[in-house]
Amino acid sequence: MYLKKHESKLLLIPKGAEQEDAGIIAVLTDRIPSVLIVRWFDLFCFGFAMCSYVLDFFSDIGIAIFHFWAGRHLSGALVLTFALLPSVIINIISMVWMLDDEMHWKRRAHPRRTGTFELNQKRFISLGKMITLCVFQMGPLFWYYKALYYGWMFTRSHKDNTDREKRKFFMKMVEAERDATLLRFFEAFLESAPQLIIQGSIAANYFQSYYASGTYPFWLYFQAASLTLSIISISWSVVVQNRSLRMTRDDKVNIWPHEAVLQFCWRFLTILARIITLVAFVLVYEIYTIPLIFGHLLVTLIHVIFLQALHIEACTHIEKLLLVINALIHIFTPFNMAEGKTRYRYLVAYGVEFLEMMTIFIILPPPLNMFPMIDKVRVGVPVSFAIGILIMMMYYKFFHPNRRQLLGAASQVDVSRDVEKVATPLNPSPVPEELNGNVVEDKTTEQKVYESLLEDECHN
């Protein structure tokens, strides 16, 4: 178990020779689930991600403007730097991916190329619009819109289109969603998470200054809203990343809406407690918090190497890079990026967070012991953390998607008693209303019934 190599879940890296103009579609063709489902909840996730991304980014820019307007130039510069710099990096990556898609589109659309469903079709968006989106720091929205568009086309195609066309829409939706969720995932931990520490420290200092007067400036409320949006952004990015990975795997069961909500609540409450703990460390130790974070990184890197060691063929440097990225993510919340059992991984990671949290709030070193309402914070933070852990345990015990494999359903069939009613291309039948979406099933679905049983421990 310890130091055992595992396959990576964060990145889908093709094995074997690279195929010309394949992109991720060629990989997904072999991994695409036998049963394709797109719910209205999936479309809602795309729309919610777009709205939360815009609100999170522009709220940070608005906070920076408020600080500059009031003459707090250092605070404004810190907020603006940690808002723009990660955004520029993410949009550069997004632009590179767009140009890569443009290059593949031109190759596929060449008159001498045959046998691809892209042939003689127009590009999804013009190059000029791609550049404009990235210049205005809205590049990730392109991928969410693309996923939303093809997901909508999938839901509208159940009466008129063929199975081949539906699979095309599904693959394109998954391809766009995978790019979008990966960009959003890194954006959350490059921009939103550092913003939480910076803005949280600034807000805590000014809250303490204005507490005696009983009145607070209006921008402080705006900053509190921005902090809440950032926590929502981080929590949701982790949930949709896990959901996106499951959607493309034929050996995984997809996530139902209520399971995504449970994951979100667990992440939101534990990340809230973690951010308050980090802000408390900044208030007490100020610049000396940096060595403490490096110490946390060292401890995290050790247990990540022991419990989440990765094996990627011919990609030794990527293995090391992913381990470092995972350790950095663990500053804010535990994340499992390797296949396999999660019990010990989360036990160790949350155990380290709990010890750090209880250390700062039990000792209460000055000036933390003089902070307004410190008694309520001292109790509220561990309670928030405990409720989050309780929801996590309830999720893994009763609501984890893998538990539905005990019903004998195929990996991507998200119904139990109505699985026999799912429509097939050769024998169409009414689609159950519970699906709230559309389903396409191959002939091989029946052969996969009862192929998987739940293991002793739940897997992510």
From TrEMBL:
Q: Name one Pfam family in it.
A: XK-related
Q: Where is the signal peptide?
A: none
Principal location class: membrane
Query: What keywords is this UniProt entry annotated with?
Result: Cell membrane, Membrane, Transmembrane, Transmembrane helix
Cite a single GO BP annotation.
engulfment of apoptotic cell
Q: Localized where?
A: Cell membrane; Membrane
Q: How does it sit in the membrane?
A: Multi-pass membrane protein
User: Per the UniProt record, which residue ranges are transmembrane?
Assistant: 43-70, 76-99, 127-145, 218-239, 260-284, 290-309, 344-365, 377-396
Q: List the GO terms this entry assigns under cellular component, sorted alphabetically.
A: plasma membrane
Q: Which family does it belong to?
A: Belongs to the XK family.
Q: What is this protein called?
A: Cell death abnormality protein 8
* Organism whose genome encodes this protein: Caenorhabditis latens
Which lineage? Eukaryota, Metazoa, Ecdysozoa, Nematoda, Chromadorea
The protein's gene is named: ced-8
